[in-house]
Amino acid sequence: MSTLAVASKEEVSRQTPERASRLTRQRVRSAWLFMAPMLVVLALVAGWPLFRTMWFGFTDASLSDMSAAEFVGLLNYQYLLQDPDWWTAVWNTVVFATVSVTLETVLGLVIALSLDAHFRGRGLLRAAVLIPWAIPTVVSAQMWAWMLNDVFGVINHVFLAIGLIDRPVAWIASPDTALIAVILVDVWKTTPFVALLLLAGLQMLPQECYESARVDGVHPIKVFFKVTLPLLKPALMVAIIFRMLDALRIFDLIYVMTGNNRETMSMSVYARQQLVDFQDVGYGSAASTLLFLIIALFTAVYLTLGRVGRED
Amino acid sequence: MGRKTKRVLGRVGFYLLLALIIFYTVFPFYWAVISSLETGSALFQVDFWPTDPAWDNYLAVFREQPFGRNILNSIIVAVSTVLLSLGLAVLAAYALGRIRFRGRTALLFVVLGVSMFPQIAVLSGMFELIRWLGLYNNLLALTLSYMIFTLPFTVWVLTTFMRELPKELEEAAIVDGARPFTIVTRVFMPLMGPALVTTGLLAFIAAWNEFLFALTFTLSSEMRTVPVAIALISGASAYELPWGNIMAASVTVTVPLIVLVLVFQRRIVSGLTAGAVKG
């Protein structure tokens, strides 16, 4: 988030002051004119619906007739905080987000370091890494659901053959492994994105540090922890926040793999079930709003901590 | 251990790691392709090479449901989303990237903030809006609602791109008395080709893959987009999913995407990192 501070250079040229200021005014006017359509659309599809969702959270609106909504104060929130299923969803989302983002960061770093090395066939590796990224999430979910199928799945087949398990495991259906299965698919699908971001970060690192470390005969592992990792921190921070924001609002992967199953339900799945399946727009909106606030709070804390760390 | 053996071992280890990474990233898709070509009982045996490849599953997908229509829907939605968001974003990016005015940084933050919205947080408000506009179960509802994630991203990337163009370009046009709109269309647009392709592709992929809005704002199977159709393919009973068909449908829509991504891989990588690292 650093280049936001990049101020564009003075644009007004060396002309007479009156003409220059008239030109500036004209340009500022056209700036607003040019932004107007974009701002109107964003207000329409983001600002207004967000406002309405927050409002519905304080009402008893139902999907069949949203206009008949009546104000009920904090009643929805009161119920929400007492619902053990909501807390399960919060817990699932937090576990899912932290575990999958941690794994993605570590794996992404390994892949990024490999892609940064010079060897023949680097293009092939990069192409291979892009494949999971290119595959739609719904398709990844189905592909893995098939591979993880308890009776016909290739994973059980191979694990049985090499003796890793002694009887087929119902990876997705069993409550003990369902969340793990979902996390593994998310890791597979999004590690490439992390790897590409980190690779871009690696390629911007100054080469001199490495030269001098090499001349001094510092061990590569030490170089990694003392030079690469600290220098890569900004890129890591960006990759982690992008992934965390995505993981906290996860819907499609979990919905397709395990449906509205309680064991793996995320906050988004919970909110949509209330909203659409149970038609309870008021209650579902309260849950959605709470998710929004949690994500906003997380972002604020993360950015503040990140900034504090940078000043040290 | 000698220096040389150590180096050879290191090299072997490195290539083993590479092989492992490639296997990990490619195998699941390879497996989907294999499964999609197997029918009947062959599907339920584990063969790492198709024993008797057949196209039956592919034919079945198009016969048993409006999958052709679903693909067309996805194309319409994704293309219209891309065109609309690029059109709006180019104008906005010119203003945000090349003109100094008060509140510019704040506006950029607002745009960035919108891209962090969880989609579920606008779902009920959007549902109301779409019903009010009479767009429920209509593809236009998807084009409109997809602006929430494609627009911030395209504005952001195109703004950073605009900023990096030399200011002399514009100065000459200003001295000649060109109006701002002419400057955008005549001076900047011709230079924006690569940036437009990159952001357009990324927006296309995002729109093509979207699931939550498409699931919620469409009703009939004719109006579904590809991800919803694939997620909701069902068999005779809930316990008998037609895996062959699901894999065939998955491969059908994924192959063009993979080809697109591989052809444009440099562009996509630079676009992804421009969107994130520079943010």
Question: Which descriptors apply to this entry?
Answer:
heterodimer, A: 312 residues, mainly alpha, MetI-like fold, 12 helices, disordered N terminus, B: 279 residues, globular
Task: Give the topology, please.
The complex is a heterodimer of chains A (312) and B (279).
Chain A: H1 17-56, H2 75-82, H3 84-116, H4 122-134, H5 137-147, H6 154-161, H7 175-203, H8 207-215, H9 220-248, H10 252-258, H11 267-277, H12 281-311
Chain B: H1 3-36, H2 56-64, H3 67-98, H4 104-115, H5 123-132, H6 139-164, H7 168-175, H8 180-188, H9 193-209, H10 212-217, H11 226-232, H12 243-263, H13 265-277
Can you describe this structure?
The complex is a heterodimer of chains A (312) and B (279). With 312 residues, chain A is mainly alpha-helical. Chain A has one domain: Orthogonal Bundle (MetI-like fold), CATH 1.10.3720.10. Helix content of chain A is 73%, strand content 0%. Chain B has 2 domains: 52 residues, no CATH class; 213 residues, Orthogonal Bundle (MetI-like fold), CATH 1.10.3720.10. Chain B is globular. Chain B is mostly helical. In chain B, helix 3 packs across helix 9. Classes of the chains: A mainly alpha (312), B mainly alpha (279). At the A-B interface, helix 1, helix 3, helix 4, helix 5 and helix 6 of A face helix 1, helix 3, helix 4, helix 5 and helix 6 of B.
